[in-house]
Design a protein that fits this description.
The protein is of the alpha/beta class. The chain contains 14 helices and 17 strands.
Length: 466
């Protein structure tokens, strides 16, 4: 069942050598949504010095996408131990550490995780000793809980009366990354009432600060902030806004650092929301959409990039409102790759009867398009404007609008493109992502530009280490 079996076994052998007290077994793990899976786990104690020396019992569950997804970690207190809820441990004994949040293979290892666990527990001891009466009551409680589940509470055991009325049926989405863009997406989605529930997955270290702190203070309805990948479970749309802030020197290094970041995110996200649509807003969007598709193993229809949606909406607005070219605006699209290499195109031609009229119409349209592109050139893509574009795309997916958007989609087979690259093309979006690609009007200049973009993007992808 494990996708990377040899890597997993190799690492667990190393753990056994360093911490021989750990015992390994296969058990059924129950996730928050009630789904279950047989997972490898190991239990043991980690040595902690906090005045005296203590052995802290823990259990680590190894996901089937290990080592690309971090383990799920719990304290395993005995009947005479109580859990000290703190910044690294919740009331259920779930362990949260920066090492888990920033997990990235091959840099991150289980041995490294245990070392950080020891260091953090030495700063703040996670368990305390119960009195005999407390211990008896806790033993009774633990016995009851053990009948329900191992790990987290089985959501299926909830009574339907008084349970979560939206459970299993709500339009839930997750935004990964709590930077300016991530917060802008949350605010735009909330303002437009697009989703029933929004989870903002904050992968930064430390307590909430800046925008996430403000979101917590002012408590937007139906918005949850979490550092735990499992909070994203059963999302119908997952928006990726994260970008690496490393010290890369070259453009290729920048992209590679983003790829490394995604290697620690995409497997976990796709594990918890196996039927979601991945909507990529990270840069460069064409390459990061390709990376998301490869790492998730999702069908191509369910991995899309924000691509030219914002530029297309602006382009259509300029044509219709500013240049009074209403007839052109509805069929105009910005396609190709984001940035200077984007190109205007059309999905239908004017109803003309001969070649001369066709050429005259095309020349007239080209002049208007050039004017519109000049106006568009001065418009930057700020976080809030991209956030509005993301909300627009999310609404089309969650509400199954079947609306046409210019989004980054797999372009192989289009315009004689033979490589696996993602380019912005007009697509009909619905609950399963891309429902259908809309045919563009044949234009040799557009085809040449798309093929050129595909070639340069493919060359970059070949140099990346996935």
């Amino acid at each position: 069942q494990y996708k990377f079996r040899d890597l997993t076994i190799e690492e667990l052998v190393a753990v056994n050598k360093t911490y021989p007290n750990f015992t390994f077994s296969m058990n059924t793990y129950t996730f928050k949504d009630g789904s279950q899976k047989d997972l490898l786990n190991f239990s043991g104690t980690v040595p902690v010095k906090y005045g005296n020396s203590y052995n802290i019992p823990v259990r680590l569950w190894i996901l089937d996408s290990h080592p690309f997804a971090p383990p799920i970690c719990f304290l395993k207190p005995t009947a005479n131990m109580g859990i000290s809820v703190g910044k690294h441990v919740d009331a259920h004994g779930r362990i949260y550490l920066p090492y888990l949040q920033n997990w990235s293979h091959p840099k991150s290892t289980i041995i490294g995780l245990i070392k950080e666990m020891i260091a953090k527990f030495e700063e703040e001891l996670p368990l305390y000793s119960l009195s005999s009466s407390d211990a008896a009551r806790r033993s009774e409680l633990l016995s009851y809980i053990a009948k329900i589940t191992e790990g987290e509470t089985d959501m299926k055991s909830k009574s339907k009366i008084g349970g979560d009325k939206n459970e299993g049926c709500c339009n839930k989405m997750t935004v990964v990354g709590a930077g300016d863009l991530g917060i802008a997406c949350v605010l735009a989605v909330a303002a437009k009432g697009v989703a029933d529930k929004v989870v903002l997955l904050d992968l930064s270290e430390g307590a909430a600060k800046g925008g996430t702190m403000d979101l917590e203070i002012f408590a937007l309805p139906n918005v949850e902030i979490s550092k735990d990948f499992s909070a994203s479970a059963d999302s119908k749309v997952v928006v990726l806004t994260v970008n690496s802030l490393g010290n890369a020197q070259t453009y290729l290094d920048v992209i590679q650092s983003n790829v490394d970041l995604f290697r620690g995110i995409i497997p976990a996200i796709s594990h918890y929301s196996q039927n979601s649509v991945l909507l990529v807003a990270s840069q460069p969007v064409e390459i990061m959409t390709y990376v998301s598709w490869k790492l998730s193993a999702f069908p191509k229809s369910r991995v899309i990039g924000v691509g030219g949606n914002l530029d297309t909406e602006r382009f259509q607005y300029i044509l219709t409102k500013l240049l009074q070219a209403q007839a052109l605006g509805k069929d105009a699209w910005i396609v190709g790759e984001q940035g200077e290499d984007k190109v205007p195109s059309w999905t239908s031609s004017n109803s003309v009867t001969n070649q001369a009229e066709t050429m005259a119409a095309r020349n007239s349209r080209e002049k208007v398009a050039n004017r519109a592109m000049e106006v568009l050139k001065g418009k930057g893509q700020r976080s809030w404007s991209v956030g509005l574009s993301v909300a627009d795309l999310t609404a089309s997916i969650l509400k199954d609008k079947r609306k046409v958007h210019s989004v980054s989609t797999l372009a192989k087979g289009f315009c004689n493109i033979n490589s696996e690259v993602f380019l912005s093309l007009p697509c009909i979006l619905g609950t399963s992502g891309v429902m259908e690609m809309v045919k563009l009007e044949e234009d040799p200049l557009v085809q040449e530009k798309l093929q050129s973009s595909a070639g340069s993007i493919h060359d970059l992808q070949q140099q990346l280490k996935l």
